[in-house]
Each structure stands twice: as C-alpha cells, then as structure tokens.
Design a protein that fits this description.
Elements: E1 2-6, H1 15-28, E2 34-37, E3 57-62, H2 64-73, E4 80-85, H3 92-96, H4 102-110, E5 115-122, E6 125-127, E7 130-134, H5 135-143, H6 152-163, E8 170-176, E9 182-192, E10 196-197, E11 201-202, E12 214-220, H7 227-236, E13 245-250, E14 252-264, E15 267-285
Parallel strand pairs: 1-2, 1-3, 3-4, 4-15
Antiparallel strand pairs: 5-6, 5-15, 7-9, 7-14, 8-9, 8-14, 9-12, 10-11, 12-13, 14-15
Helix pairs in contact: 1-4, 5-6
Length: 291
C-alpha cells in the first residue's frame, strides 16, 4: 500500500501544489495510492489506519517536524519511508543525499534503490536525524519569529544572533554504553543518526544513517562572544577538527540534567533524564550517500 501523508500548513505553504504533482507522477506510473491529510486527523488513533509494514510505503510531504510526528504515530517501523521536502529546514534529506527540490527528491526516490537505515529512540520517542541540548535549543525557541520571513539556513542564522544574548553553558551528567555517569559543562551536545540541523549546519559530521551506531558531538563550553566565531565552523562541520568539540560513537547514551530542554528533529521536549538507543537497519529508505 502507498500512502501519501501531507501537512497543508507546513512551513513553506507549497505542499498542496507539490501534492498535485506527486499524484500526477504516480498516476503516470499506474501506482495506486491513498492520501492522509494531517489537519483532518487530529485524533492520533486515525494513524493506525495507515499501513506501515515491510511491504508498505509511507510518503510524507512536509518538513522534519511533520516526518517526526508522523513516524511516532505509526504502528509499524519497517515500511519504506519517502520524504518530499516541503518544510523550512528539511535537514534529514541532506543525509540521505536527496535534492532539496521536492519533485526532484520524489522522482529520485520513486525511481531509486532502497536500503535499510537506522533510527533512534529518545525515551521511546522515535527520531531520524539529530537530538540536541544546549545552545541549539535556545536557537529553536527564537526560530519561530524568523522562519516565516526567511527560509532554511538564513532563518536559523537570524535566530542564532538573537539567542547569543541569553546564552549560558549547560551542566550535564553523561553515560555511554553503561559507563559511569560523568559531569560535563558544554555549549551543546548533538546526538545524531543524520548530520545536519538548522537548514544546513553540519552538527554531527561523522553520522551515517545505516552504520548501526550513534554519533555524538560535544561542543565545549565557550564564552558568549566566542559563539559567533564558532558558528562558521559549525556550519561547515569543522568544529571538531579545530578542537572545539569532541566526537565519539556508541550504542546507547544517557543524559541527566535538571529541567532539561532538548530537541528531536526540531521539536522541543523537556525531561530530567534522556536515554537514547539505536534501532538498526529496520526502516527502508532511499539513500545515495557514498559512505
């Protein structure tokens, strides 16, 4: 079964136009499909009607937030995932090697090969891309004021400039793969299956979507004025290379921090502690990354 899930109110407001084009392509290839409008299905139980087994395809039109919310409401996790980018950041598609143009991305997937990829669980919430705590969450709280005025990386950069004013390092206790907890003071921590956040910032340079491991980057605590110097390195994924961050991999990571705000693929949550685990090779998706 092929199901198109779409959010007509996603960031760029172009979803309905893209939906028509996607339908035309599917009709031309004699592929039958059903549609599922998120706005018409406020009751989460409605998502149980979407087939999500290993023989099914779920094609999501929207941004990273729409993908995250839909993935968490589906019963299954072995379906073929297709993402047609219609949001503001559209970060996870970059790790899959998909173009940012929605129709080009759709054509690449409908005609391309599929591989099994990983996803992560944070306190049993599924996510595909990056979890973050610290300064990037401060930026996200500012982002709503700019994402309807600017697209992609530009809106994120505007939010960064405003978030710098209220910046302070975060205090965390961290354990990897069952090791004893150790205290850290950081500017931010990024835990990734994908690499990119904020419309193109390479937060987790070493992340690979199908390698069965969690990639982590800790960015050391810096002074407020140093953040703007860190930003260009962060965009290019060079913050680890220049000694501002530490990268490592694991199968499980646990974090404790009082009243901790953290983001999963751009959506903000709050917990006293978070445990992140990997579900390896379960989900099907197009991935033309070279690694």
């Amino acid at each position: 079964m092929f199901t198109i899930v779409f959010n007509p109110e996603t960031g760029t407001k172009r979803t309905l136009h893209v939906l028509d084009e996607v339908k035309t392509i599917l009709d031309s290839q004699s592929i039958s499909y059903t549609t599922f409008n998120i706005i018409d299905h406020i009751d989460e139980s409605a998502y149980s009607s979407i087939p999500s087994g290993s023989q099914d395809t779920v094609c999501i039109l929207g941004g990273d937030g729409t993908v995250l919310r839909t993935f968490n409401k589906l019963n299954g996790d072995s379906f073929r995932l297709m993402i047609v980018p219609c949001g503001t950041g559209n970060d996870f598609i970059k790790s899959l090697g998909l173009p940012k143009d929605p129709i080009k991305a759709f054509n690449a997937q409908i005609n391309g090969t599929v591989r099994h990829i990983d996803y992560l669980l944070a306190n049993n919430r599924r996510f595909l891309n990056v979890m973050g705590a610290g300064f990037d969450v401060d930026v996200l709280t500012k982002l709503n004021a700019f994402k309807h005025k600017f697209s992609g990386l530009k809106s994120y950069l505007m939010a960064v400039i405003h978030a710098v004013r209220g910046y302070s390092p975060i205090e965390l206790e961290i354990s990897q793969d069952g090791s004893p907890f150790s205290k850290r003071q950081l500017s931010l921590i990024s835990i990734g299956n994908g690499s990119y956040i904020g419309g193109g910032m390479k937060a987790v340079p070493g992340a690979i979507t199908h390698d069965g491991i969690i990639d982590v980057v800790e960015v050391k605590a810096v002074k407020r004025w140093q953040l703007l110097f860190l930003l260009p390195l962060f965009i290019l994924g060079l913050h680890v290379k220049f000694g501002l961050g530490k990268a490592y991999s694991c199968k499980k990571i646990s974090i404790i921090s009082k009243n901790m705000d953290y983001q999963l693929d751009g959506e903000i949550f709050n917990d006293e502690s978070v445990s992140v685990n990997i579900v390896s090779g379960r989900l099907q998706a197009f991935d033309k990354s070279s690694r």
